[in-house]
Amino acid sequence: MCPSASWRILMGTPTEVIFTYIFLNYRMPESLANRRKRMGSLKLRRLTQAYLTPYDQLAKDSSGQRIDEIYGITQDLILNYQSVTSGLFPRSSKDKSLGYVKDSIYCAMACWACSKAYERMDDDRGRQTELRQSAVKTMRGILFSWMQQVDELNTFKNNNLAKHALHARFDLETGLPIESHADHGYGHLQMDLIALYIIAMVQMISAGAKIIFTHDEVCFIQNLVFYIERTYRTPDFGMWERGTRYNRGQPELHASSLGLVKAALEAVNGFNLYGSAGTSASVVYVDIDGHDRNRTTFEAILPRESNSKNTDAALLITVGWPAFATHNKAIFDKAVTKCVRRLEGKYGMKRFLRDGHLTELEDNTRPYYEEHETHKFDSIESQFPLFFACIAITAKLKGDDKIYDEYWNKLQGLLVSDSSVSGGWILPECYYVDEVNAEEEKKHGGTELSPVSPSEFGHHLWSNAVYIILLLLRDNLIHPGDLDPINRRMPASQRPKNLNRHSAFQGSMEGADPVVQMAIISESTRLQSMLSTYGIPSQTPHEVEPIQIWPSARMVKVFECLGRSKRLGLSGRPARPFGPLGTSKVFRVFGDTILCYPLLFEVKDFYLSSDPAVLIDNIKRDVEFVAKRWKLDGRPTMCIVLREENVAGEYLDHILDLLVQLKNGYVNGVRVRLGRVHQLLNSACMEHVDFASSHDIDFDVAPLEETQGGQMLASHTSLKEGSDEEITETNMIAHNDHELTEIVARDCGDSPRSTAFAIWILMTRHGNEHEVNGVRLETRLDRIYRRACASRSWWLVRYCAGRLRKTMNSLAPGITSILVRGKQVTLGDRRVREVTLNKPHTPVEIVHLLFSSCPPDDPQAAVMQQELIIACADLIAHNSEAFNGVLTIRLSWLQEAIKLLLQYVKCSDLLGTSASCPPTPQTTGIPTTHHKSIAQIVGSMKSVKRCDIYDLSPTVIKDVVRALMTREHWHLLSNLQTRRLNGSLNRVPTDFYDRVWKILERSAAGIVIAGQYLPQQPTLSDMTQFELNFSYKLEEMMSTIVHPEYRQLIVELLCIVATLLERNPEVAFHDKFDCEEVIWKAFHLYGDQEGIEQRTDLRPFYQLENVNMKTSTATYLTKAIVELILNSRHISREFDIHTRRHRADSPKENDPENACSVS
Fold first, then answer.
1. In this protein, which residues make up the domain named Phosphorylase b kinase regulatory subunit alpha/beta C-terminal (predicted)?
2. What pTM did the predictor assign?
């Protein structure tokens, strides 16, 4: 049919018929039809393939296949061992009873990392949710277990005792604490463990996980922050749960714990536990001063791990992933390099030197070692491949591909085949030295180590969890941001700003330090008018309204509501004072704006602030400290409260100098901005406090109120003069109660000492609550104390402070600052007892030790030792070199050194100074970089009428301590004076302890020092030359010496012996080397030469000058030693004078880098 005919037939036909006809009769070209036919069948096959093909035969892309392989490994090595009830993980796959918190956290991190890999897949087949929820279950399981210990948590926050620590392991099925005798001796106190949990929790919540559900749980996490804030003075058992290297159940301060806590506080500060959808009620607060103390202590200890551990593999986890506790490249490199150099082996890293864990020589049936057991593990420590994986992850996150590839390749050779696991390979917990090869390894090294058998001990979950994370990074299945969403790997200044954070530490500011804003508050209009005449602007409390000026103690009461939960029984924040950083914030409380002034302006504080010179020095120090340590958004705002007694007397000029510096905009090189309070608010750091309500707080401290002002103190000198300066407490004891009561009732201003003595005697007879004319005795004594502070009668101030048991708030941080620099502090007086502190203590413990170790008839001693602690802490923080050679700061002897210097000044015309030199503070002059000269110090000491240290002002005490420690102008002193002062300061040459170690190596029968015996064995086998414990042992032996001169003579003798032995390697002592015998022998040689008949007094020997080698102590000591060597035939080795070799084995030479220096 022709087309035209066909068209005519279709005219008038329905449309659907027409289209049907066209479809049936129209023929497309053959090639196009075939092509479309093939495309249609291909499309059909693609649509139906997923439903018609078995799963195992589906084609996969490489990334999807790889993640499924890793999922299989995770399932076999991790998930299969998670408790279905508690969510906890065991330490090894064969353990069915104990769930360990640390291992569970790492397993949760592995599950979480694997879930992030599945997050990128279009079809994860539900595995992302499964893995993520497994991690959440673990984190909540740990939270549940700890919440069963609320009572322990509340107690620990206040006393930091190990017996109240949160547990590190629980029953695997129930998640409850283990009630067994063996668990009571376990090292549960692990501050790094709590910190690791907080870091992992913040990372997961930042990535979208929901871990915290209720406000009570928010309160519990806040209390975990309180738990770890004081790690800087809390010795713990560390990451390995053993405490010191000796595994004797003794905790110590660990750098790894401090670093993890520092990182945790930075991670959780201002973080919202409900995620981006949370309100301010779920925000966590961190004490910025507590964070700074942890950071300072951490950096001071590094690169050491602790007193007993020169280094530790735990530091790799601390400075690297997951904590990234430091971003200071020098500190990071020093710590890591030391770890690698000391601990790295072919099969992994040793945990620390002489670690017996999982060695074949260890008796694992005992929780602790015997006293001298660790020496048998020397050079045969097990090696842990886990740390190679940690180094590789850290390098990957930091972008160091060279280190990453190096340790990845090392790790591949350490995997162990296991057909029961997907992939067929696992990472063993460690490699150990076989017992038959132990001696060979000790002598020569290089023996083959064997992996711990997984069939015998099971798979180590922690090691394989970290390895799974490394696999995910290696195959680019996760990125650094997935593993570290809060960017801990980056310095704080380079992290993207997170708008959801309530607050965040910003890290060191690039460029200049922040501007410190200053507001001056005058207590009265009278004082304000006086300052205005000098051009100094200030405001009264009335003028700044509605802004309120609070003492920091009042804000502490508000913060006690933080973290409080009645339903859980949580007590909230302990009553910890705010430091300079905390009081530099502006607070919004109950709708009011609050500005807090620092503790140094508190009237009820320790008497140091009553010395205007100390006050000025502390203000400058705080300004410098705040500028250097400020890490928050906004400028720090400091409030200076001036009272009339601060500007009275001769110190007015120095106060004005400081205020002029503030007005000019620079103090000690720090930029400051002095302004009115209202002008400073816009740029200040604002802290909104909405966790408390006014009816929940019972304030016992009032805000600062304006006073009327009174008659200013004309001169403190006239007020110090009294008619009863010669009266002693002993004279007053003979009075009866009636006479004493009359003296107290009169309260005559001309005889304040008599009144104070009378009050104290009545208190001892009738108690503190006894009243005279309706006023308690303790209140009366406190009034005298206040008046003495105002008049600066320092003897009376210290007497009243001692009787009232006044203490400083900064004692514990001050002692910790000294201890972490490798020193130790001896409190007390030898007339009662002396107590040496080589680990941090709580303030309550320190106060008890101070007042119980000082003589009851010398009440000033306890408060004077507090002054000395603070003086030493300030000096060592700013000039640690001043303490080179001083390992033990013996406070009673330091006090004696000050008395000696005072005596030398009184008995001589040192520097030709006169008593007219004013006792000005060391930093009050306009040239702020110069300390007070020795002439000023001498003038200040000569101005004291009586040769009594208690009459000196706190400023002079502080300056004398600095002059003693820095040895300024010591060349003006005689040899005997120098020897006495060095002995009093416990100063020795910086290499003294290393040289004594070498003497001990050459003394087979040991050494006797001051009647104390130090055996060669097991000392050499139990200790190492480069650990502080050997130095502490020597100091303990010499602490029994009564006279400083004799102690210094012992030090000189040992240095001479060490020199002789170094120059004569053929010499060795076979009998006990008794230092006292040698000194007396030298004295007899001196006596024979000088014809001295009285041979019982060594004082003539002490006074010998060392300028003339023929008549010096060194000469006679050397002669005595040579006689001992020759007469006792201590040359027992054949010595070749031509080749300088001896046939016997020479003493073991130690790496000089290992040497323990006290500097």
1. 963-1085
2. 0.84
Angle at 203 between CA 198 and CA 209, to 5 degrees: 105
Spatial distance between the Cα atoms of 448 and 347, rounded to a whole number of angstroms = 9
SS (H, E, C) 330-367: HHHHHHHHHHHHHHEECCEECCCCCCCCCCCCCCCCCC
Strand partners, 561: none
Q: What 3-state DSSP class applies to 843?
A: helix
The conformational region for residue 669 under phi > 0 = left, psi -120 to 50 = alpha, else beta, is: left
The DSSP result for 415-474, as a single string, is: -EE-TTSTTSEE--S-EE--GGGHHHHHHT--PPPEEPPHHHH--BHHHHHHHHHHHHHH
> Could you give the CA distance from residue 779 to residue 1026 in angstroms, rounded to a whole number?
53
pLDDT, average across residues 734-739: 88
Q: What phi, psi does 571 have (nearest 5°)?
A: -90, -10
DSSP string, 646-701: GG-GGGHHHHHHHHHHHHHTEETTEEEEE--HHHHGGGB-EEEE-S--GGG----S
**Cβ neighbour number for residue 762 with a 10 Å cutoff:** 22
In this predicted structure, the answer to whether residue 250 has a pLDDT above a threshold of 60 is yes
Residues 6+ apart with CB under 8 A from 1029: 307, 308, 1023
Query: With 50 as the cut, is the pLDDT of residue 923 above it?
Result: no
Beta bridge partners of 548: 594
Angle at 766 between CA 760 and CA 772, to 5 degrees: 75
- Provide the 3-class DSSP secondary structure of residue 580: coil
Among residues 370, 948, 931, the alpha carbon closest in space to that of 617 is found at 931
Q: Letter for the amino acid at 129?
A: T
Q: What's the average model confidence in pLDDT over 207-232?
A: 95
Please tell me the chain's helix, strand, coil percentages from 3-state DSSP, rounded to the nearest 5.
Answer: 50, 10, 40
Query: Among 502-506, 536-540, 652-656, which stretch is predicted with the lowest mean pLDDT?
Result: 502-506
pLDDT digits (tens, 9 = 90+) for 50-69: 444 454 444 445 777 889 99
Per-residue confidence at 722, pLDDT binned at 50, 70, 90? low
d(CA 327, CA 338): 17
Taking each helix axis as running N to C, give the angle between helix 811-819 and helix 860-878, from 0 to 180 degrees, rounded to the nearest 10: 50
How do 564-565 and 570-571 pair as beta strands? antiparallel
Q: Which amino acid does the sequence have at 229?
A: E
Distance (Å, rounded) from C-alpha 476 to C-alpha 465? 17
| Helix (H/G/I), strand (E/B), else coil: 938 | helix
Given a cut of 60, whether residue 931 has pLDDT beyond it is no
φ and ψ at 206, to 5 degrees? Answer: -65, -30
Residue closest to 1076 by CA, chosen among 1011, 1131, 993: 1011
Distance CA 824, CA 348 (A): 35
Looking at the predicted structure, is the pLDDT value of residue 983 above 80?
yes
Decide which of 1096 and 552 is more confident: 552
Region of 270 please: left (phi>0), alpha (psi -120 to 50) or beta. Answer: left
Calpha distance 25→1086 (Å, rounded): 138
Contact assessment for residue 993 and residue 1156, using Cβ atoms and an 8 Å cutoff: yes
Tokens 């408390």, residue? Answer: 692
Torsion on CA atoms 943, 944, 950, 952, rounded to nearest 10: -10
SS (H, E, C) 1091-1137: CCCCCCCCHHHHCCCCCCHHHCHHHHHHHHHHHHHHHCCCECCCEEC
Residue 166 is given by DSSP the state: P
Q: In the 8-state DSSP scheme, what is residue 547? A: S
Token readout for 980 is: 């006495």
CA dist., res. 436 & res. 368, Å (int): 24
Two tokens, residue 694 = 């006014």
Task: State the burial class of residue 409 (Cβ atoms within 10 Å of its Cβ: 0-12, 13-18, 19+).
Answer: exposed
Q: What is the largest CA-CA distance in the chain?
A: 158
Q: Which amino acid is at 202?
A: V
- What span, in angstroms and rounded, lies between the C-alpha atoms of 185 and 367? 8
